[in-house]
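User: Before I run my own analysis I want an independent prediction to cross-check against. Here's the chain; please return only the structure tokens and, at the end, one sentence I can use as a sanity check.
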Amino acid sequence: MEKKVLSCVHCGVKNCQDQKGEYPPFCLTQKPETQAPLEESWKIYAENDEVRKIAVASAQVEAEHYCQATRVQEVLYFAKKLGAKKIGIATCVGLLNEARKFARILEAQGFEPYGVACKVGSRSKEELGMKDEEKVYPGTYEPYCNPVGQALLLNQAKTDLNVIIGLCVGHDSLFIKYSDAIVTCLIAKDRVLAHNPCGALYSDYFDHLTDKPMFPDEE
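Assistant: Structure tokens:
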């Protein structure tokens, strides 16, 4: 039987946070085989001015508004720290109302919002090679989400910071991959739990997902 590889998600000590205990034997902070990537990370912070600026801005927002500011406010504080003016919004069409509200807040606080919805370009899912029965609503016209197009259009608009509002799992990955500007997430999509993914970790969903295999054919 293959030996289980332990990592941070198996740790209950969190000595890296407060230095009040001892690191477990598998701790990534002290394992010899993890030292090279860690040293490389310290080098990047030291030598890359943009990375260091983002890291400092993030830490400052955390310290200055800890448990006081909402995620919406924290995004604005973060943008201000970075000196960002033009804020890109990569939104799901299903959350355009939320995106419009966020854009109004941005404008009221002196930023310039520029949004691109996920269905931009409106190309049929069949063009991706999908079958009609694979669509959400077979027998209807369904355009595929275009996160690459969203990223390229925001690149063209020369946004300073891009914000994700409700992009689907995987589509958000493609958007981040092709975005020139740094990306933060305001809303993580979860259609079942009112866009609160942590609900699955705090509720009976957790027992369901840990007790029953989702992919029984692969067991």
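Sanity check: The mean pLDDT is 95.
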